[in-house]
Every structure is written in C-alpha cells, then in structure tokens.
Amino acid sequence: MRIRVVGVLVGALVAYAIAAGAASAAPYHILVGGHFAQPPTIAQCQAAEGIDCYGPPQLQRAYDMAPLYRAGLNGRGRTIVIVDSFGSPTIQQDLQSFDQEYNLPAPPSLKIITPDGPVNQADPAAFGWGVETSLDVEYAHTMAPGAKILLVETPVAETEGIVGIPEIVEAENFVIDHHMGDVITQSFGATEQTFDSPQQLLGQRSAYFNALAHHVSVLASSGDTGAANFETDGTDLFPFPAVGWPASDPLVTAVGGLQLHLDQDGFRTAPDNVWNDPASICTQPCAAGGGLSSVFGRPSYQDGVARIVGGARGIPDVSLNAAVSSSVNVFMSLDGLAPDFYQVGGTSEASPLFSGIAAIADQAAHHDLGLLNPKLYALGDGPFSGSEDVTRGNNTVTFTEPSTGETIKVPGFNARRGYDLASGLGAPDGARLVAGLAGFHAGL
Predict the structure, then answer these.
(1) Total domain count, the chain
(2) Ramachandran region of residue 319, left (φ > 0), alpha (ψ -120 to 50) or beta?
(3) Greatest CA span in the chain, whole angstroms?
(4) pLDDT tens digit sequence for 157-180
(5) Beta strands, E only, 147-251
(6) Which residues contact 153 (CB under 8 A, 6 or more apart)?
(7) Residue 444 lies in a domain
(8) How far apart are CA 59 and CA 321, in angstroms?
(9) Does residue 352 sit within a domain?
(10) Is 30 helix (H, G, I), strand (E, B) or coil?
C-alpha cells in the first residue's frame, strides 16, 4: 500500500506527499508529522500529537524478551533479511544514532546488497521506502540486538499487482540460494485482486518454495486498511473484504496489527486490542489487515480453526503492535528531514518485530526453523494466552472513496478468544513462544 502522512506535517513531508502521487509507494506504514531531537516520552507524544509512542525498552518488556536476553538469546549467529524497494541512503548512520540514544549494541553487521542492480534514490517513491527501511531495520534490531541484518534493496517500487514483485522474488531467491539469511521479513503487499489473474500471482511464489526447502522463515505484514484493501490505482479501495499477498501465502507467516497500551516502563495499562484508529487520529482507513484469501485454500495447519476460516487461507497468523495511536519512535535523517525521532505505525512495524523473535527461536533451537505456521498453530493458546490473547476490537472500516466521494463500510472481523481473522492467534509472549518453537526452557 502507499504511505499516508498524518498529524502536523513538516515541509519536506508535505512536498513528498504532493509529488509522490497516488500509487507511488506500497509499504505498510504510516508516518506521523511530529519529530523530536531525543526519544520522546509517551507524555511528550500525547502533548504533541495526541498519541502514545514507544521505543525499544517498552516493546522488549511488553513482549517479555528479558528472560531470553538473560539466557544469552538475542539472535546471535542468525541473520534477519529485510527486503525493501530502494532502501535508505542514510540507514547506516540512522541505526547508529538510534542505538546510541537507546543504549543498544550495534548489530554484528548491517550489510546492504542490490541483487537486481543499483537503486535510484532520486525516484519519487524512494522517500516512502526510506521511511520503511528505517522502521524495518531499527525494530528488527530492537527485538534481536545480537542478530546480523541484511538489507536487500530492489530497484522497482512495489505498488499493486505484479509491479515490483518480480524484482523482489529474484532478490529473495538470490539470498536463499546463497544461504545469506535465516528469517526474511516483508513489510509490503499487493491486494490479491489487483493481479491480472490468480495464475499470475501463483507464478510469483518461487522464493517461498525455495525458502521452505532451505528452512528459511518468511514473514509478511498483513496490511493497514483493515478488512478492505486497495485497488490497482493505489487510491480507491475495493468495497468488499480483501487481503494482500504475500501475507496471504500459506508459505508465509502473516503478521497483523494491534494497539498496545503501555506506561513509560513498558507495563500494560490495558489489554491489547485490534488496531483500528479513528479518523481523528489517522487518515481513513487505518486498521489491521485480516480476512480470507480469494486465491489460496485452507492450509492443513489451519484445519484446527476451520470453523473460523472455512475453506480459505485466513490471515493474520499472529499480531504485534502497529497502531498509529501506539506508534514507535524511528530515527531518520533522510534528505529534507531534520535528523530526529519520528513516530511511525503500521503493520510494517509488526513484521520486523516478529522477525526478531523468530531469529532468537532459531538461535535457541541451534538450527533454522523454517516455515513457522504449523508449529504456531500446534502450540495453540500457550504462547498467546492470558494477556496475550486478543479479545477486543475489530477491523471493520468505513471510508470515503476518493474517486466517487461515496462513503463505504467494509465489514471486518471481531477479536475473540483463540484464533480470529482480526488478530490471528494473538500477541506472542516472546519467552514462551521461543520455548515452544525451539524446545528451549532453561531459565525461562
């Protein structure tokens, strides 16, 4: 999907929003206009933007990562692969500044490759992907500070339909063929109905079969428009429930979006709910992607939730923080921006967060776990029970169609105990999930 900018905008962001056009960028994130020289507190973000904002300390506590770190599990020896069109020309120094402000160790390495050829940072879409890259790298590193990071940049902006997808597939196959990573996170997607045909979409799956054969875990964000999803023009939305690919692929773990309610120390002040921000906070629609695939049938690992998904592949599988109303602080010094902390939300945050947990699970298991979904569903409520099971909220959205001015409501799905099509299995407890995935229990 495309970037949406909300809040009080600085000049560079206004210029970008005007110049980029409707279908210019497709990462699943939302950038808020405020910015701060140092990491802001929740109170400062509330005063400036009317939203909460969190950083690494709060998220590490919220997802119960401390027992893993105490056990020496931080992703060491594993590589998280982040795939983004264009990347960011400032990511090296931005991550360094992020780490310094939050007292995080530098990753063992941050390597950037361009398997499909050089990228053009002057492309109008590059700014949005620069924001995306900053979010992806900084918050994958937040969860797995000991993991290596491989940033894979592609030269064509992924928008809707097949545009940009062949380059991404080629790049991911390159990474897998050369054994360069253990977990791949993808914070983008195209509505299934925007491909010319189901066959065209199915023809782009080679990297996921390759990942399956090489035991590489692949994740994807579920989207930021609730039960709705964009049409080919990247502006209008289909007036019926629709989901995006690659999140809908049965060989991919789909990561949905929640709203966290934390205090400054990272303790929950209220249970998580499905992300669904009102128009007063976020440009409409602005909610967690989830629903039923129109292309893929129910995979066997979802047989236990057949009464929810019927005969179709249902997404998401798991969910983590994504709401604009509970955004994260991202350091950026992209061209035209003051080198400051900006607030960003969207399921583009959730997938890299989960990639850190997946990398730590690989470390704990002493081998790559590959496709996570069969084990996630086999574990059941264990790592997603208690405060982690999401039973509040829905992803129904109401919006004004840009091309017609018509008000449209797309009915979504309610959170409920156990699996649902708004939050999946729920929010993971990092320590318990790693224990369940890797069979590692010592000290947890």
Answers:
(1) 1
(2) beta
(3) 59
(4) 999 999 999 999 999 999 999 999
(5) 148-154, 183-186, 190-191, 217-221, 244-245
(6) 84, 85, 86, 87, 112, 113, 114, 119
(7) no
(8) 9
(9) yes
(10) strand
> For position 382, what pLDDT does the model report?
66
Mean pLDDT of 107-118: 97
Strand partners, 314: 292
User: What CATH number corresponds to the domain at position 220?
Assistant: 3.40.50.200
The conformation of residue 349, written as its DSSP 8-state character, comes to H
pLDDT of residue 385: 53
Identify the domain containing residue 248 by its residue range. Answer: 4-438
Q: What is the pLDDT of residue 122?
A: 87
Residue 443 lies in a domain: no
Q: Is residue 264 part of a domain?
A: yes
Cα(234)–Cα(21) distance, integer angstroms = 9
Average pLDDT on 253-274 reads 97
Strand locations in 239-361, DSSP E?
244-245, 253-259, 273-274, 291-297, 312-315, 318-321, 326-332, 340-345
Instruction: Tell me if residue 342 falls in helix, strand or coil.
Output: strand
Structure tokens that stand for 272 in this block: 């998580």
Instruction: Compute the distance between CA of residue 58 and CA of residue 16 in angstroms, rounded to an integer.
Output: 31
Q: How far is CA 141 from CA 107, 138, 364, in A?
A: 7, 5, 17
pLDDT band at 261 (very low <50, low <70, confident <90, very high): very high
* Dist. CA 102–CA 433, nearest whole Å: 25
Strands 253-259 and 273-274: antiparallel
- Residue 23: the pLDDT is 36
Q: Render pLDDT for 274-293 as a digit per residue (tens, 0 to 9).
A: 999 998 887 778 999 999 99
Residue 340 has pLDDT above 90, yes or no: yes
The reported pLDDT for the residue numbered 384 is 67
120: Cβ contacts below 8 Å, ≥ 6 apart:
86, 126, 155
Which residues are within 8 A (CB) of 230 and not within 5 positions of it... i.e. 6 or more apart?
1, 2, 160, 191, 194, 236, 237, 238
Match 């300390």 to its residue by tokens: 57
Q: Is the pLDDT of residue 388 over 80?
A: no
CA geometry: angle at 203 spanning 125 and 116, to 5°?
Answer: 45
